[in-house]
Amino acid sequence: MSTADTLKKALRDAATSLETISRLAGKVYDGKDANGEPIPTYMGHHDEVRAYAASRAGVARAELAANEAEKAMSEALERVIAEQQKEIDRLRLMEKNNNERWQHENKLVERMALAVFSVLNHPESPECHFELKQAVMA
Questions:
Q1: Helix axis angle, 3-24 relative to 46-121, nearest 10°?
Q2: What is the pTM of this model?
């Protein structure tokens, strides 16, 4: 639930509580139960009205505090995810660089092997010996 939704819900609850207070404040009884007994409203005295209002305000504050904790947890989770993504990107780059290095090394080894076989097949050829020197120095 977003902060705006939580705030709207808290405001709706507060409005309902204020309506309840305005309807019941100062009344000792509000109707009768199934047995015909008067039902106490517990708002006949201003202390009872204050206690009810304080309890409803406490509920609203607790809900907002829970939402703030959820938001803080969400922000922390987003930071952790961002750090993990950064590490994943770093590892992918390292893997790409390693692959490129291996491809380069393999080309050098292949060039050396070709030069060695050329010299073995044509021991009198100065071009083959030159290619072998170049491959060794690379």
A1: 170
A2: 0.44
